[in-house]
Amino acid sequence: MPKQEGQKSKLVTLLRILEQRTDENHRLNVPQLVQLLENQGILAERKSIYSDIDTLRSLGYDIQLQRGRGGGYWMASRAFELSELKLLVDAVQSSSVISARTSKRIIHKLEALCSDYEGTQLQRQVYVDGRPKTDSQTLLYSIDALHTAINRGCLVQFRYKGSSAVRTVSPWQLAWENGCYYLIAYQDEKAPPVRHYRVDRMSGVLVLDEPRRGKEFFRTFDLPAYLRKHFNMFGGTEYRVTLRCAADLEPVMRERFGREPVFCPEDAEHFHFDVPICVSQQFFGWVCGFGGKVEVTAPAAVRAQLHEMVQSLAEQHE
């Protein structure tokens, strides 16, 4: 590489070396920096290194110097701390909606945001309760298209669950629930006016130029409340259900239903509360999972449905 060309790129190359080859536990002194630059065809004098580092500092880069034996320069702070990058890597690896190939590509990009030495710590394995990662390479593009439509306030078209029928809806929000992305959309002149769709079951997502509808409805729409009503995002007829629970389940119920329900103590061992629920088989399964510590006391119609389901299961397993 000609000397002049090398000098033009010296500052950028020096910055890259400091970003990739240094951290709190790995420093480079001036002779080492000179040698690494020469390895890339860039001639540098010791004095110019000091000047270049001062320039980088003036541009906002946190380059520190430790004097004495074993000392040298290192990049002291970055856009992300190592602990933050580990968190992002864990989230990418554990996400079932990101394919293995895409996960590898994203993690490789995250590694570039720390030193080479710290990058080895990002090769992590996160246990994901047996759920397979998606094989779809188009899911991220579908999510991106939906975000675009929501930000622009436009309608979207897509096919759902392999059907050839094209659906047109007004997209308003994306929700992450039970390891899946869901589109929360408005349906014109239909009951209920809100419907959700699993994004990984969509295909051919297309952003239209036509403006979406449902602005007045979504002005007061409560997404957290909507998610709490739908167990595992399954639909059903909405009831106001009264649940009687063992006292030790209060933290569990608070985590599931939030602070809105009023918990009414009955005695030292039980409390009850009312909560809106879209009643489904999944809700009944959730109740039964507590092994008698949760009871549906009202309304009678829901209690009868639960009794019928339990009786049917009992007969099936005689």
From TrEMBL:
InterPro entries: CBASS_pafABC_assoc_protein, WCX_dom, WH_DNA-bd_sf, WYL_dom. SUPFAM superfamilies: Winged helix' DNA-binding domain. Pfam families: WCX, WYL. Residues 238-314 form the WCX domain. PROSITE patterns: WYL. Residues 144-205 form the WYL domain. Transmembrane segments: none annotated. It comes from the Bacteria. PANTHER family: PROTEIN PAFC (PTHR34580:SF1), PTHR34580. This is WYL domain-containing transcriptional regulator.
